[in-house]
Amino acid sequence: MKDFIYNSQATRVVFGRGALSSLGQEIELMRAERVLVLSTPAQETWARQIADGLGARAAGVFAQAVMHVPARIAGIAREEAQRLGSDCLVAVGGGSTVGLAKVIALDTGLPIVAVPTTYAGSEMTPIFGITEDNIKRTGRDLRVLPRTVIYDPDLTLDLPVELSMASAMNAIAHAAEGLYAHDGNPVMSLMAEEGIGALARAMPAIRRDAHDLEARSDALYGAWLCGSVLGNVGMALHHKLCHTLGGAFNLPHAEVHALMLPHAIAFNAPWVPEAARRIQRALGVDAGTSAAAGLFDLAKDSGITMALRHIGAVPETDLATAADLVVSAPYWNPRQIDVTQRDAIYRLLSDAWHGRRPD
Ligand SMILES: NC(=O)c1ccc[n+]([C@@H]2O[C@H](COP(=O)([O-])OP(=O)(O)OC[C@H]3O[C@@H](n4cnc5c(N)ncnc54)[C@H](O)[C@@H]3O)[C@@H](O)[C@H]2O)c1
């Protein structure tokens, strides 16, 4: 057993079908009286219904959350929260909406109740991000960690299948890297393996029937576990690759995670055989299929576009610049990344660009 440090984080989790109906009670427990409900424009109807359900405790709705939390939108939302005298934020949606709540909380200290409707996992982390002049700044601060999270699988039934699959792979990526984190611990490894397994089993079932409530529950359970791993331990090469590509080429978040993960795991696997074995076991693949190949097959069989060249405008000639960016400011990684790894990273990016199955 390796030495470890384990910090438990204080988020209350309410999980189950119909759990949204306990929102009023949860707000009451927090003694909040002027709730601001946040959502994206696409989920405004939900936000308004939720605000109606809260009655006099709802102070207003702010339905302008967008991907990567632009500083301008965060500023408007913060002013709205102050104007309304809000004492609590309810974020209904995916990582973009939870991300907006976090940036408001960072400045105001307002408590957050998160009601996640994707598998991104932001609700379980103290990580925030804000984008200004095309540059995304991220940080960790316990003030942004949601106080309460309500997981209701009913709210995920209408998450489009394509987005569900990519979002599930995004969650799996948190757990896969958590299995070899420099500050990992046995509890997070248990959660990571269980989370990958729950999502991998749920994905084909959701693909067959998006309204399969059992599978939706399993996927949301997996998302909770994987999000907890992301919130507790540090991420490595895979997340660096996704942040670099996402930032430089404005690519869709979950889709980039889905297609890059097998390549990052293939790159690291020989350095972390135990983590690779646990990923294989969670995926339920046979001994002849590597963790990386198993992840690739899972994503491809789920209908996810597995070639970088097909998901956005990334010219092949720009891969060299991306490789330079990755090695110039690397995250900690079990296989050390520095300029001597630049060609290996370029090959990894090229494999992902072409959509080759790692082996
Ligand atoms: N800070 C963290 O710990 C953390 C973790 C993961 C992701 N993120 C951030 O979250 C963002 C991505 O989040 P995301 O992938 O959840 O996407 P998202 O929140 O942008 O949602 C994508 C789209 O799907 C819609 N949608 C969400 N749930 C739906 C549902 N159940 N039914 C129908 N439509 C629904 C949304 O309204 C939106 O239009 C990125 O900015 C990423 O950086 C942050």
Structural write-up:
- This protein is α/β, with parallel strands linked by helices.
- The chain folds into 2 domains: about 10-155, Rossmann fold, CATH 3.40.50.1970; about 160-355, Dehydroquinate synthase-like, alpha domain (Up-down Bundle), CATH 1.20.1090.
- Helices cover about 50% and strands about 10% of the residues.
- The protein is built from 13 helices and 8 strands.
- It has helices at about 25-30, 45-55, 70-85, 95-110, 160-180, 185-210, 215-230, 235-250, 255-270, 275-285, 290-300, 320-330, 340-355; strands spanning about 10-15, 35-40, 60, 90-95, 110-115, 125-130, 135-140, 150.
- The chain has a 6-stranded parallel sheet, with helices on both faces. A two-stranded antiparallel ribbon has the order 6-7.
- A hairpin with a 2-residue loop joins β6 and β7 (about 135-140).
- α5 packs parallel to α9.
- The radius of gyration is 20 Å and the shape is globular.
- The structure holds nicotinamide-adenine-dinucleotide.
- Nicotinamide-adenine-dinucleotide binds near residues 42, 93 and 253.
- Nicotinamide-adenine-dinucleotide binds near residues 93 and 158.
